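Before going further, learn to read the protein records used in this course. The integers have meaning only within a learned vocabulary of local backbone shapes. The record below shows the convention in full.
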Amino acid sequence: MEKLVFGLVGTIVLLVGSGLIYAAYRKMKVFMDCPPGKIYEATIGKNIALNGNISAESSLNSPFTQADCLFWLDSVVEVVRRGKSTKTIVLHNQFSEQPFMLSDGSGHIEVIPDNVQLKGKPHFQSRQGAFRGFKDERADRILADLDINPKMMMFRRAITVEERLLVPNQEIYVWGEVVNMPQLDDRHDRKLFRKLLPKLMSDRPKSAFYLEVAGFALLGLVFVLVGLGMLVNTFQM
């Protein structure tokens, strides 16, 4: 029985390590699939990494903090802990869909947000632990507006309320695919225009993500080696 339990734990550790390595690969693949370039080089059907400043004819007000912006991404995430197991659950995840323009001196291209990741420092972030409330009272209002009552939740370890923004004239980095999309021109004729569907947007360059990716990969490797060692010992018992 002891041998079986030891082997089972080793298998779980090995799977966790493999998952972390795969997560690092997925993060790095976005950069590998999107070579850096200028907007004038953007070719329809190709992936590209662009760097420039953003603008739009009109701005937005973010739902959580009513901040002036061109793009917002709001989320509420809880971490549930039962015994030794930990699970992350997304209670709310929503982003703005209004397009905006990206310019880099060589040209401009319209960015169409669609299920995109936004990395960088959050504009607003507040956490509630098992024995302490939110430091920012706005988080309580946000949860009330979303009809989320943390006091009714059992086994909660932490709830995080977060809002990320892109603001007018901000310099950003975008990794995505260039596509053709129909749009009415100045004469109201229906034509195809080149646009960018982003996979990842950030206020930080690619190099800033290397440490994050390396951390995932290194931690995964440690788990894999520990898991393999446990399995080898299991068969030698």
Summary: The chain has three helices and twelve strands. The chain has a mean pLDDT of 83. Helices lie at 2-33, 138-145, 210-236.
